[in-house]
Amino acid sequence: MQYSTKILNTPSSFIRNILKVTGEADVISFAGGLPNPISFPTEQLQQAVNRSIEEQGTKLFQYSTTQGYEPLRELIAAKYKKFGLDIHKDDVLITTGSQQALELLGKVLINPGDGVVMEAPGYLGAIQAFTLAEPEFFSITLEEDGLDVEELAATLAANPHIKMIYTVPNFHNPTGITYSREKRQAIYDVVKNYDVILVEDDPYGELRFRGESLPYMGGGRLENSVLLGSFSKTVTPGMRIGWFVTKNKELMGYMETAKQATDLHTNIFSQYVIHDYLSHNAYEEHVEKIISLYREQADCMIAAMEKYFPDTVKFTKPEGGMFIWVTLEEGVSALQLFDQAMEQKVAFVPGDPFYTNAENINTLRLNYTNSTPEVIEEGIRRLGALLHQTSAVKA
Amino acid sequence: MQYSTKILNTPSSFIRNILKVTGEADVISFAGGLPNPISFPTEQLQQAVNRSIEEQGTKLFQYSTTQGYEPLRELIAAKYKKFGLDIHKDDVLITTGSQQALELLGKVLINPGDGVVMEAPGYLGAIQAFTLAEPEFFSITLEEDGLDVEELAATLAANPHIKMIYTVPNFHNPTGITYSREKRQAIYDVVKNYDVILVEDDPYGELRFRGESLPYMGGGRLENSVLLGSFSKTVTPGMRIGWFVTKNKELMGYMETAKQATDLHTNIFSQYVIHDYLSHNAYEEHVEKIISLYREQADCMIAAMEKYFPDTVKFTKPEGGMFIWVTLEEGVSALQLFDQAMEQKVAFVPGDPFYTNAENINTLRLNYTNSTPEVIEEGIRRLGALLHQTSAVKA
User: Which residues of chain A are within 8 Å of residue B3 when distances are taken between CB atoms?
Assistant: First the structure.
């Protein structure tokens, strides 16, 4: 059997492939991107299930509409008011996790060879999803305050076949950085001159534990603005409820057709449950609890890195979200370090899969949300010892 | 914005588009393909939810594996024992409804221009899903006992670029027919000579209310056999739990990568709930109740058609499933009849969207599972009156 070129070219997820080793009981794993399960509102979700079944009966179990449960779309639209955005329920499409929105975007926009701008490094799930549409990727350097604007401007100017720019502006995956207010404006000023879709994927935006909330780049002012969101990091990832927002009606129409052909509609049982949960609970207070938890974990990891890592190793200090990005000394392979670290029963994700075009790179991603402070300290201590060895060998 | 050629060529679902008119309260709708909501085991599913949360806790709410919940895959694998098939849990991939399996198959197998054999008429959701992969469709006549074998053999012989044959062998959608034992063997004898994937999509197979259960065509004996199944017609469609089965490890690997890129994994909450439901309830007895219900509804519709329809109108007599296929007099447009019927507040699906290459055809699909016997009688009476008028005009 000859398989399609698109699947032959699609990488399987490095993270999901290493889950078998990193998931063993005695391994300290900073590799996954899992929310802390103590943050799940289990009891309230159970109440929401029972109330929904009692109030809505068989509607939870029947086929439903492709666009998604209308009252849930209304609640999601209302979330954007705090950013001054006037989003209507019909600007919202419920997706099977926001991962699905990425895959649908690739399908709807990209002919083989069309251009897609990616952050370098960028979210590996987006690389994977877009690869299925066989684009030409343009990697733009991600600086500590967002995309390199000059590089972006030059790339857009030289490549009229670019259809889409993909960004994670808040507490970026994998680096943890946040686009500055100035960078957001500068990117808008460049992008507004082109007929391209600007995607702002924002699964972590509500999890800010430091600094001020910043406006979207394209949301509310670019015709081709796309905003993505998810309940995976704030309520539950297991129910796979994400969403896609655009005011471009034509794009929305094609996204809906693509969604229909892909899985008819998103699990309606879970849509009712999430809607009921949001309607009967103090969501903001719940999110505040997650923020406190993650702030403590992030601070703990940063303190441990300052204590145990050699000065030559650099790392980001996120204002929210779930990740820290580590840059090793020039020439050190994070992939090689991964093997050594696994011998010490500590896991992380080497940088390679976050680039469309790099190998044996000297960067890596650490997740802090799924370990206790004690475990974080111990894991970083072990990594630090390895890094001091590496440093000594080089010196 | 220039959208992708694949989305520009993908039809949006005729059925989903007419839902707005056919869904109005005073319309008798034979248009949808909805299971009867009285068949949903609502109370038992609610118990399953509560038991699952109490026993498994946060595992229901966390990210999970792409392949699907292992105990659920085991239960699904075991279902095939009654057909003498030795399916292992690792031969099963849980999908977001079986619709997703179709879309993933297109993605994994089809390069633009590769051939896909479709039944004519065939399932419109499959036409839609495969269209996204830009194949060349080969429509093979569907006879009352299955695909026209000579046409299939000639088509396969003449077109080495055919990658996949898509079939619904039991209580076919849209026609309600079932492939005969002889046809199944004859199709196997042809297909075994080619390196093609034979898909047997079987969402209705358990809903047999007449006749004997028949073996799969390729399952258990073709290396490239694919079986699809779903809990949508027997437990609940709202939770979107379907599955994909193959013993071809290479194909399974690519399907898993495609699934990963598409939505990471299927709703794990619902997988736990369905597994718990199946483990604590008499599933076979539950299915027997659905069968009794649908048998009565089918018999009622057939009796009404014999009473009210002109003799010139032909229709199938299904042995199970959810649909009856009606063939009007030569030259009568079912699309035109649809408009007239909607004036009489009766809805059905005209045949056109079930073909890759036909327009204004004289066939239509009726669903009987979602109306009471009284409503079925009244709806068929109204349609019959219209058909007698059409007949009189032609005479």
Answer: 108-109, 250-251, 254
Cα dihedral sign, A278-A274-A33-B52: positive
Task: Dig out the tokens for A334 from the structure.
Answer: 């994070």
CB nearest to B258's CB, from A7, A110, A263: A7
Chain A: closest CA distance from residue B265 (Å): 8
Residue B263 has pLDDT above 90, yes or no: yes
Q: Give the closest-approach CA distance of B192 to chain A in angstroms.
A: 13
Contact A262 B264 (CB under 8 A): no
- Select from B63, B238, B253 the Cβ nearest to the Cβ of A60: B238
Domain at A42-280: CATH code: 3.40.640.10
Range(s) within chain A of domains with CATH label 3.90.1150.10: 5-40+285-394
Residue A393: predicted pLDDT: 66
Q: Using a CB-CB distance cutoff of 8 angstroms, which residues of chain B are in contact with residue A63?
A: 32-34, 232, 237-238
Helix (H) or strand (E) holding B20: helix B14-22
Q: What's the pLDDT at B390?
A: 79
Q: What are the average pLDDT values for consecutive 10-residue runs of chain A, which has 395 residues?
A: 92 74 86 94 98 97 96 98 95 98 98 98 96 97 98 98 98 98 98 98 97 95 97 98 98 97 97 98 97 98 98 98 97 93 95 90 96 97 94 65
Which of A32, A42, A257 minimises the CB distance to B7? Answer: A257
- Residue A263: which of B42, B45, B100 has the nearest Cβ? B100
Q: B66-70: long-range contacts at Cβ-Cβ below 8 A with a sequence spacing of 24 or more?
A: B66/A16, B66/B256, B66/B259, B66/B260, B66/B264, B66/B265, B67/B92, B67/B93, B67/B94, B67/B256, B68/B92, B68/B93, B68/B94, B68/B243, B68/B265, B68/B266, B68/B271, B69/B94, B69/B268, B69/B271, B69/B272, B69/B275
pLDDT at B395: 54
Shortest distance between the Cα of A391 and any Cα of chain B, in A, equals 36
**What's the CATH architecture for A5-40+285-394?**
Alpha-Beta Complex (3.90)
Domain with CATH 3.40.640.10 in chain B: 42-280
| A163 contacts B1? CB cut-off 8 A | yes
- Angle value at C-alpha A14, between A12 and A15, nearest 5 degrees: 120
**Is the CB of B286 inside 8 Å of chain A's CB atoms?**
no
pLDDT in tens, B340-392: 999 999 999 999 999 998 888 999 999 999 999 999 999 999 999 999 987 77
Q: Across chain B, what does the average pLDDT equal?
A: 95
**Cβ neighbours of A33 in B, within 8 Å:** 63
Q: What percent of chain B has pLDDT over 90?
A: 92
Is the ipTM beyond the 0.85 threshold? yes
